[in-house]
Amino acid sequence: MDASGTAPATAPKTVFKQKVFSGVQPTGNLHLGNYLGAVTKFVDLQDRYDCIYCVVDLHAITVWQDPPELTRAIREVTAAFLAAGIDPKKHIVFNQSQVAEHAELAWVFNCVARLGWMNRMTQFKEKTGKDRENASLGLYAYPSLMAADILVYRATHVPVGEDQKQHVELARDIAQKFNNDFGPQIASHGFGDAFFPLPEPLIQGPATRVMSLRDGSKKMSKSDPSDQSRIALTDDADAIAMKIRRAKTDPDPLPHEEKGLETRPEADNLVGIYAALSGKTRADVLKEFGGAQFSVFKPALADLLVAKLSPITAEMRRLKDDVSYIDSVLADGSARAQVIAAETMKSVKDIVGFVRR
Ligand code: TYM
Predict the structure, then answer these.
(1) Which one of the listed residues 19, 219, 243, 298 is annotated catalytic?
(2) Measuring CA to CA, which residue among 142, 130, 24, 99 is closest to residue 338?
(3) Of 257, 253, 242, 258, the residue nearest 301 (C-alpha)
(4) What is the pTM of this model?
(5) What's the rounded Cα separation, in Å, for the pair 81 and 279?
(6) Would the CA dihedral through 331, 337, 342, 348 be positive or negative?
(7) Top-level class of domain 19-208+323-352
(8) What integer is the mean pLDDT of 315-329?
(9) Domain 227-320 is of which CATH architecture?
(10) Helix 101-110 vs helix 323-352: angle between axes, to the nearest 10 degrees?
């Protein structure tokens, strides 16, 4: 250990096991943005990584939640994970409040993160608008808890939609500052030159930011007052077809090239959704539909949505009624998650200098 407080130059480079962590809030119904931006990625990553997927109920209560509705939503998001194809035996599916270490590490991170960093978080500014004085302290500290979610498992990869990029970057900053601040202790406890990995956001594909069906400049969101702005994972075929039929568009036919979408946010959004659902690029979709009117493209998109979503919706409905099964998945996942989280917290306590049992 040297007097400057930096890790000894001799500390071996820490090698982290590659691991995926991500979370979804149990607030309202999941929508197409959550599905394409996050849940489908969760499913795809299962073959390549050990994955931990969390229903982040501690995050949900940063704004008021009706308690019975929160309980329902926790089970519904879990059902959506399973219905979409996440395997809770091979990987871990759980709800955050069952693993107290998330909140415990978040406190340590509250003391590592700087106010200036938190003040830059655009989502907090967007969510609170002019009513900032009235926002909960939890909403302000939210990104610190999110960093703890990821880092309590020392996860290296975080699949999210575009809107969460800044939060994952903040988690990197917190990890980096913790590693620097406690460098000597990290090395002396045998963890090498870093205790936490710098997690990487995984934001790929044509639908990392799915937009509102009513306004191509706003992201599709659970909190939009218009139900017509989003496709919920619980929507039936008729509702999907109707919402796509009514989706805002412009009068021109689809362009032949991607460049032609640049000034047409609504068209760009619908083409992006089609691309993501069919596993194609926007360019491929335009090869097929370039020159077509929306009266042709919209029914094709609605059919594709129904074909892709209806098996998931049906399975979600079946699972949701099996409360004891859902709760057993969460209990089993939480127990397995906690083993990993407790191990991390034990080391964090040693590194920070707490006395423990
Ligand atoms: P949440 O619950 O708002 O959204 C869940 C996931 O869906 C993505 N998403 C979208 N993707 C594309 N287009 C959209 N319109 C769209 N809307 C939402 C989000 O980017 C997210 O990936 N803070 C997180 C939850 C969280 C978390 C974490 C995520 C808590 N701890 C740790 C990763 C790691 C959130 O509120 O997501």
Answers:
(1) 219
(2) 99
(3) 242
(4) 0.96
(5) 20
(6) negative
(7) alpha beta
(8) 95
(9) Orthogonal Bundle (1.10)
(10) 40
